[in-house]
Design goal:
Blueprint (H helix, E strand, L loop, with lengths): L1 H18 L2 H23 L3 H14 L4 H13 L3 H14 L5 H14 L3 H17 L3 H17 L3 H15 L7 H21 L3 H15 L11 H11 L3 H8 L7 H13 L3 H11 L7 H15 L2
Helix pairs in contact: 2-3, 2-4, 3-4, 4-5, 4-6, 5-6, 6-7, 6-16, 7-8, 8-9, 9-10, 10-11, 10-12, 11-12, 12-13, 12-14, 13-14, 14-15, 14-16, 15-16
Length: 309
């Protein structure tokens, strides 16, 4: 009996040691990241319930896994379960490695954009902005400032939007040895921003002046990839100032993979009493499963139209 007991103890210790071995840890890590990979695909395919179940499995195996908490937060936002999403993002912020901290903070900020709470978004965007300034990474900091500005603008706070757009513009230009093309990029973004802010404030004349200035910058040819944003800008100004026929015409030329473009087009169709076209676009918006500002602004109103919540 004593011999059997000793053998049992030895076996238990061996199993325990094997579980703690590098090979076992590596296998467990591979398994949990495979669950994360499957969850991401399920979410991309629009299968949010399946995705969250997979993320939960990953969290059970590795409770402090950054990727699982971040992914779960994304899916819960898309499901309009915002409080639960923010609990996941808080865990992601805590677990994030240094190189992913800004991503986690900005994801939390975007969560609050879904519910149009820009002052809450600002708490997290600024936590990303300050280390970028300290590094310094002026380009990334400028983009973070612009992201916060857009959240303010689409949350009907044009004054704070303009403040942060100006911060983004001035920050971006601080880049050492900045090229002319990069200067033109920030100039274009600044004119684009001022046009949209003016349109939101009902200043159609001012908006058009900034639209013209933005087009003049694009015509320099230094940033050809930015031309695709011009119909977005003209469509936005028309939509925000109540020129819905022009908005539809311009937005049809804009990026149809951007859910916010589709939202403005849908709302313009509603204003022109073309409800079938509007509803088709609301349904298309619901096929986007990204977690970014355009979808944060577009998905909740589309969800209200399509499923009533």
């Amino acid at each position: 009996m004593k011999m059997k007991a000793c053998l049992s103890i030895v076996l238990l210790l061996a199993v325990s040691a094997a579980a703690k071995s590098p090979q076992a840890s590596s296998s467990q890590s591979d398994n949990v990241m495979d669950l994360v990979k499957q969850a991401r695909k399920a979410n991309s395919d629009g299968k949010q319930d399946e995705a969250i179940a997979l993320y939960r499995q990953a969290e059970q195996i590795s409770p402090s896994l950054f990727e699982a908490h971040l992914g779960a937060g994304v899916v819960l936002d898309l499901k309009a379960q915002y409080d639960e999403a923010r609990r996941e993002f808080a865990k992601a912020v805590e677990a994030a490695p240094p190189e992913a901290k800004a991503q986690a903070l900005k994801s939390m900020a975007i969560s609050y954009a879904f519910t149009r709470q820009p002052n809450e978004s600002a708490k997290y965007e600024q936590q990303a902005f300050e280390p970028q300034m300290a590094k310094p990474d002026y380009y990334a900091a400028g983009e973070t400032a612009d992201e916060l500005a857009r959240i303010y603008l689409e949350s009907n706070d044009p004054a704070n939007a303009l403040k942060w757009y100006r911060t983004g513009y001035e920050t971006g230009l601080k880049e050492p040895n900045i090229s002319q093309a990069r200067k033109d990029l920030w100039e274009f973004r600044w004119e684009n921003a001022q046009a949209r802010v003016a349109a939101r404030q009902g200043k159609a004349g001012d908006a058009q002046k900034h639209v013209a200035a933005a087009k003049a910058i694009l015509d320099r040819g230094t940033n050809p990839d930015q031309m695709r944003f011009y119909p977005y800008l003209t469509g936005y100004v028309a939509w925000a100032t109540g020129d819905y026929k022009t908005a539809i015409s311009e937005l049809q030329k804009a990026d149809q993979r951007d859910p916010f473009n589709l939202l403005m087009e849908a709302e313009s169709y509603e204003k022109t009493n073309e409800s079938n076209q509007a509803m088709d676009l609301y349904h298309r918006i619901m096929t986007f499963n990204t977690h970014n500002p355009p979808n944060a602004f577009a998905r909740p109103p589309a969800q209200q139209k399509v499923v009533g919540k």
